[in-house]
Design brief:
Layout: E1 3-5, E2 11-13, H1 15-28, E3 36-39, E4 45-48, H2 50-65, E5 77-79, H3 80-87, H4 91-99, E6 106-108, E7 111-115, H5 116-143
């Protein structure tokens, strides 16, 4: 059971390791992984925060499915195409958000760029709003009983 690191950061996973990843995903089932702890060769234990746990969970799921996974860091400034993709909206919708003042662009020559921290904050705000609406709708169904 192995994985091999190639040039340019590509990791190849053999079928045996893919199967082990699938077993791990199956063992977790629908539950969310709350904590991940590694033990070093010296016996020291390192526990990771939820963001790192989430990253490992995504990687494990993708390996289990046998698909490809690209991991990249997010630059400080994003193109409008990338920002729209992260928000789950079309580029024209993103441009309307800029015109309406929801997002403040940074100009790079004649091109709009958006700060990744602004996109992250807007994503979180929109998710909170979606959850509140869903809870309200679920509450309406409870009132009818």
């Amino acid at each position: 059971m192995s994985s091999t690191l190639l040039t340019r950061g590509t990791v190849l996973v053999d079928d045996a390791l893919k199967e082990r990843a699938a077993e791990a995903v199956h063992a977790v089932a629908d539950e969310q992984i709350a904590e991940l702890t590694f033990t070093t060769t010296t016996g020291r234990q390192v526990t990771f925060d939820p963001a790192i746990v989430d990253l490992f969970a995504h990687v494990l799921n993708r390996v289990a499915l046998g698909g490809e996974l690209t991991v990249q860091t997010v630059p400080d400034l994003l193109s409008t195409i990338t920002a729209a993709e992260l928000l789950g909206v079309s580029r024209p919708t993103l441009m309307k958000m800029i015109r309406n003042g929801e997002l403040e662009p940074v100009m790079a020559g004649t091109h709009h760029r958006l700060r990744s921290k602004d996109i992250t904050a807007l994503r979180e705000k929109r998710e909170i709003e979606r959850r509140a609406i869903a809870e309200e709708l679920l509450g309406m169904g409870d009132d009818e009983d």
